[in-house]
Amino acid sequence: MEARGMEARGYDAVLLLGFGGPEGQDDVIPFLRNVTRGRGVPESRLETVATHYRASGGVSPVNAQNRALRDALQAELAGRGTVVPVYWGNRNWAPYLGDVVAEAVAAGHSRLLALTTSAYSSYSSCRQYRDDLAEARGATLPGDAVCIDAVRPYFDHPGFVTPFVLGVRSALAEFERQGLAAAELHVLFTTHSIPQADAERSGPRERSFGAGGAYEAQHRAVAEVVMAAVAAAQARGSAAVVAEGGREGVAVTAGAAPAWSLVFQSRSGPPGMPWLKPDVNDAITVLAEAGTRAVVVVPIGFISDHMEVTWDLDTEAAATAAAHDMEFTRVSTPGLHPVFVAGLVDLLLERLTPAVPAERCALTALGPWPDACPAGCCEKGPARGAEHPAASVAGVTGG
Questions:
Q1: Structural domain contains residue 185
Q2: What functional role does this protein have (predicted)?
């Protein structure tokens, strides 16, 4: 394939980097062993988490989603006049990252621009991916023969945020049609929990983000942007109704936006180790006891509907809500939404044409995030010990 459009910065291929997941019953335990290697996790614990996959035929949705995303990126790039191969590799299952980089190099591509399937900053969601890229580069050819750069964390890029705004608006409109008032609803923005120590070390050392580090601050900032956009849309809609109804003397007031919270899910690790909380199930229980009638769950930490979305939210969190006679709806992740795909290509193309940082798209005051991680950014916290293997399907890593 003739490559054109990336020569200005020397990139000759794109690499989509995912977490990986099993694609059949025989893959489940080997996959979980890959993820938990070196952590001393007993086979009995692996079997416990394996039931999540086995309930879906042993298949994680994530590989099919990444295949489709690879193809969508390829098409979007070509549509903008940039024709380059888009490779896809995983950290923990085939196609393995090292094999894919070797394949790209064998095909004559030595300068790759990588896009990871995680939008936020922490050791697991950013630093570890970049370390994997460096390892794959070093294992392929010695010295500087191969270059692999990565796009910046894109938590507050419009392409990532907009599908969540649309999803929340749609969910709230549906509950309104059912006769539920805003005061009876609650929006829960959820993401994968991580150890408190890892959260505190997330982001550059020279910036202060609070107890939850950059990881929690980024999620909270995005949730605020989503709810502000939803409230603005509701206000515009109410104003339009007022203007139209005013001719008939009808008074219409703008509806209030529901309350919202940031919660966490899929906690793993020793019981005594502090992790970010509250857990989504605990939050649902507390809301139900306070009289909330419905929850809108927004998986703001995830780019696609992989196992921890379909199991931990669609199965477990939904069951918790049902146990309290509470209405439950879950907003879709960006997935293959055209706005998301276009936004990812924007991120790739911004590395081809150097721009002043202020010109880069960012919807929060925290961004735009830098391309390269400074020294000490997103360091790993103290040793976690033998973690529960549920970390294998973490949305923070994309399983």
A1: yes
A2: Involved in coproporphyrin-dependent heme b biosynthesis. Catalyzes the insertion of ferrous iron into coproporphyrin III to form Fe-coproporphyrin III.
Tell me how many domains the chain contains.
2
Residue ranges for the binding site for Fe(2+)?
Answer: 192, 308
Domain boundary among 275, 309, 330: 330
Between the two ends of the chain, the Cα-to-Cα distance in Å is 31
Model-level pTM? 0.89
In angstroms, what CA-CA distances link 188 with 219, 222, 292, 370?
A: 12, 13, 12, 29
- Residues 350, 324 share a domain: no
Q: Which residues are annotated as a binding site for Fe-coproporphyrin III?
A: 60, 129
Q: Can you read off the two tokens belonging to residue 322?
A: 């049902």
> Which among 153, 238, 222 is positioned nearest to 187, based on CA atoms?
222
Residue 238: partners with Cβ closer than 8 Å, 6 or more residues away = 252, 253, 254, 255
| Same domain assignment for residues 171 and 207 | yes
> What DSSP designation does 189 have?
E
Classify burial at 237, counting beta carbons within 10 Å of its beta carbon; exposed 0-12, middle 13-18, buried 19 or more.
middle
At residue 143, the pLDDT reads: 62
18 and 117 Cβ atoms separated by less than 8 Å:
yes
Cα 350 to Cα 136, 250, 344, 347, 368, distances in angstroms: 24, 49, 10, 5, 12
pLDDT at 274 (0 to 100)? 94
Question: How far is it, in rounded angstroms, from Cα 399 to Cα 90?
Answer: 10
Summarised one tens digit per residue, pLDDT across range 65-98 is: 999 999 999 999 999 999 899 999 999 999 999 9
| Residues of the chain falling short of pLDDT 50 | 1-8, 240-254, 355-358, 384-398
8 Å CB contact between 235 and 254: yes
- Write out the binding residues: 60, 129, 192, 308
The pLDDT of residue 169 is 96
Q: Could you give the strand order of the β-sheet that contains 259-265, starting from the edge strand earlier in sequence?
A: 259-265, 185-192, 294-298, 327-330
Residue 235 CA to residue 215 CA, distance in Å, equals: 31
Which helix or strand (DSSP H or E) is residue 131 part of?
Answer: helix 128-140
Please report, rounded to a whole number, the percentage of residues in the chain having pLDDT higher than 70. 86
- Identity at 357, one-letter amino acid code: P
Query: In the 8-state DSSP scheme, what is residue 127?
Result: I
